[in-house]
Each structure stands twice: as C-alpha cells, then as structure tokens.
C-alpha cells in the first residue's frame, strides 16, 4: 500500500478552489488505496483533507506536536495519531516510511516543510518524489524563485528534478509514478553544489 505525506495550509480564509482541489485529491488517494499522513490539524486544507479521506472510507494518520494537541488543534475525527515533542521531530516523522510527499498550497509552515524536504533530497538524505499541486497557480512564484536560483547559479539546473509541479489533482499520482529516480549519493550531491 502506497503511503504519502501531504503538507498543506492551516488557514481556512482561502478561495474555495483550494478546498475543492484538496477534496478531489483526497478522493483520488482513497480510490487508489493510498494511505495518507498529514499534520493532524482540523482547520484549513488539513481539515478538508482529513474530512474528505475519512468520508471516502480511507486511512489518514496525523502527526502533531503535543503542544498543538494541548490547544486542541488536532482533528477529532482522526483516530490514528502520533504526538511528538517538537516540530523538528514531527517533520522527521512525516518522512518516515513515506513513498512520496505532496505539497498543497499553504503558508509559512507548508513552505518550511517543503523546503526542508527539497534540501534533504538535494543532500540525498531523502530520495522519494516531491509533488507540488499548483492550484490557482499558487506556486508560480515559487517556481520563479527556483528558476532565479538556477539563473543566478545558486543551484544547478539539474536540481529542478528534485520536485514536480502539477496543475490538477488528477496529475498527482501519475507524477509520483513517473518521477525521475533520485538516487544521488553524497558524492553526486557534492558535484551539484
Ligand atoms: P501553514 O502552511 O503556515 O498554514 O502551516 C501548516 C503547518 O503549520 C502545519 O503542518 C503545522 O505545522 C502548522 N500549523 C499552523 N497552524 C496550525 C493549526 N491551527 N493546526 C495545526 N497545525 C498548524
């Protein structure tokens, strides 16, 4: 059974297209018997993801620091929960046993999780596909930032293969299956500096 970790927004003050795309993706994941791991939150796209996976009869696991659970940010419908001491520990657990990462639109928390995963992959500490769902072109600016990093030679062009940006939920699972294998060792990573 494929397991994916989904990074996404805690904010609920966002366009309905973001909720629709999240619900659509959740249905596709359940239909394809994919186990979902997420941040455990009940608000924003995290809440939508969990609600939709559960409504479709799928399996979802939340990983949340204890301090967030204490202020009741956890999704009460999710029964499979892991509580961590720190945010760092939580991010490490997101990656354990996952077959891919999916980043949906989000705020600084989502960006931080996504950038850490990309950095770890660059250093060959994480090798699985990273798929970014570009609903409403939300990640266009991110793409430009990465292009600028390549143009200004902060990053070799090859590193654009660290992640795949797709526009619709239907493209997410094919993108996972078609992602370029990333099995660079640290020696290769060194040559990519
Ligand atoms: P953001 O993309 O900034 O909304 O952050 C999403 C991430 O931030 C989650 O994975 C959590 O680490 C954290 N987070 C921020 N607010 C909440 C919340 N209300 N409930 C759960 N997690 C939250």
What do you see in this structure?
The protein is α/β, with parallel strands linked by helices. It has a single domain (about 5-190), classed as Rossmann fold (3-Layer(aba) Sandwich), CATH 3.40.50.450. It has eight helices and seven strands. A seven-stranded parallel β-sheet has the order 4-3-2-1-5-6-7, sandwiched between helices. Strand 1, helix 1 and strand 2 (about 35-40) form a beta-alpha-beta unit. The longest helix is centred in the first third of the chain and has 16 residues, at about 15-30. It is globular, with a radius of gyration of 16 Å. The structure holds adenosine monophosphate (AMP). Adenosine monophosphate binds next to helix 5.
Class from helix and strand fractions: alpha/beta
Number of domains: 1
Number of strands: 7
Mean pLDDT across every amino acid position? 94
What's the CATH first level?
Alpha Beta
What name does the CATH topology carry?
Answer: Rossmann fold
Supply the number of helical segments. 8
Q: What ligand molecules are bound, each kind once?
A: adenosine monophosphate
Q: Kindly report how far apart the N and C termini lie.
A: 35 Å
Strand content: 15-25%
| Percent range of helical residues | 40-55%
Shape label: globular
In angstroms, what is the radius of gyration?
A: 16 Å
Biggest pleated sheet: 7 strands, parallel
Across the major sheet, the strand order is 4-3-2-1-5-6-7
Give the second-level CATH assignment, the architecture.
3-Layer(aba) Sandwich
- String of helices and strands: EHEHEHEHEHEHEHH
Low-confidence stretches: none
């Amino acid at each position: 059974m494929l397991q994916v970790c989904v990074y996404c927004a805690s904010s609920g003050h966002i366009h309905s297209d973001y909720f629709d795309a999240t619900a659509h993706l959740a249905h596709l994941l359940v239909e394809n018997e994919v186990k979902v791991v997420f941040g455990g939150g009940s608000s924003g796209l995290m809440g939508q993801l969990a609600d939709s996976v559960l409504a479709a009869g799928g399996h979802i696991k939340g990983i949340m620091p204890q301090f967030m659970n204490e202020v009741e940010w956890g999704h009460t419908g999710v029964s499979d929960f892991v509580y961590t001491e720190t945010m760092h520990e939580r991010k490490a657990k997101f990656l354990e046993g996952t077959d891919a990462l999916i980043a949906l639109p989000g705020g600084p928390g989502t960006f931080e999780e996504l950038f850490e995963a990309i950095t770890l992959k660059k250093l060959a500490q994480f090798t699985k596909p990273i798929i970014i769902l570009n609903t409403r072109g939300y990640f266009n600016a991110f793409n430009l930032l990465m292009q600028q990093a390549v143009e200004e030679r902060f990053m070799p062009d090859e590193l654009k293969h660290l992640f795949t940006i797709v526009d619709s939920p239907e493209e997410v699972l094919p993108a996972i299956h078609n992602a370029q294998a990333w099995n660079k060792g640290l020696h290769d990573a060194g040559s990519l500096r």
